[in-house]
């Protein structure tokens, strides 16, 4: 049985770092960051690009699921709405798969500090702070395992997810 890990969380919460660490902890694991499926300049959000990114994500995830080399498939993306998670899941072949859906959350002040560090490093633009804070409360409504990463290291978070 394959394990599929869907790791959601607002921008700056630590999804990518946690998933990279989780990939090293699990046997025969592969990792896909949803942002890699939609890295464009200029970044455009419209119905066409939204359909495209979901198609890209599902195509890659299904390839990983079908590949016998992988026992663990890890995917992260913002996934702040139930319909995003449902659309992805409905387009995957989940036969003989155990899906673990997780939302990483954290304290607002911790999130701002993390994002400010990324802005100073030139990784993100300043407008991400407002957008990320606005999404943070949306995760409470999702049917996912919530992990508050405010006081956890990347390794501790990955260990918790691996133990699910």
Question: TL;DR of this structure?
Answer:
By secondary structure, the protein is of the alpha/beta class. It has helices at residues 15-25, 47-66, 82-90, 108-120, 128-135, 154-162, and strands at residues 2-9, 29-33, 72-77, 97-105, 145-148. Helix 1 (15-25) crosses helix 6 and helix 4 (108-120) packs antiparallel against helix 5 (128-135).
Description:
The chain is α/β, with parallel strands linked by helices and 164 residues long. The protein has one domain (2-162): P-loop containing nucleotide triphosphate hydrolases (Rossmann fold). It is 43% helix and 20% strand. It is built from 6 helices and 5 strands, in the order βαβαβαβααβα. The chain has helices at residues 15-25, 47-66, 82-90, 108-120, 128-135, 154-162; strands at residues 2-9, 29-33, 72-77, 97-105, 145-148. It has a 5-stranded parallel sheet, sandwiched between helices. The radius of gyration is 15 Å and the shape is globular. 29% of the residues are buried.
Low-confidence stretches: none
Biggest pleated-sheet summary: 5 strands, parallel
Cα shape: globular
How is the CATH topology named? Rossmann fold
End-to-end C-alpha gap: 15 Å
| Order of helix and strand elements from N to C terminus | EHEHEHEHHEH
In CATH terms, the superfamily is P-loop containing nucleotide triphosphate hydrolases
How many discrete domains?
A: 1
CATH architectural label: 3-Layer(aba) Sandwich
* Beta-strand fraction estimate: 15-25%
What helical percentage do the residues reach?
Answer: 40-55%
């Amino acid at each position: 049985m394959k394990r599929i890990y869907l790791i959601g969380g607002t921008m700056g919460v630590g999804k990518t770092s946690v998933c990279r660490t989780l990939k090293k902890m699990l046997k025969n694991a592969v990792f896909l960051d949803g942002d890699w499926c939609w890295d464009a300049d200029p970044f455009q959000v419209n119905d066409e690009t939204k359909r495209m990114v979901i198609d890209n994500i599902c195509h890659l995830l299904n390839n990983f699921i079908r590949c016998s080399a992988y026992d663990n498939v890890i995917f992260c993306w913002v996934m702040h709405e139930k319909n995003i998670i449902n659309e992805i899941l409905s387009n995957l072949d989940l036969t003989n798969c155990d899906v673990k859906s997780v939302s990483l959350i954290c304290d607002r002040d911790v999130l701002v500090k993390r994002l400010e560090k990324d802005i100073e490093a030139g990784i993100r633009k300043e407008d991400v702070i407002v957008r990320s804070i606005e999404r943070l409360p949306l995760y409470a409504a999702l049917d996912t395992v919530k992990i508050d990463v405010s006081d956890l290291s990347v390794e501790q978070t990955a260990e918790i997810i691996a133990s699910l």
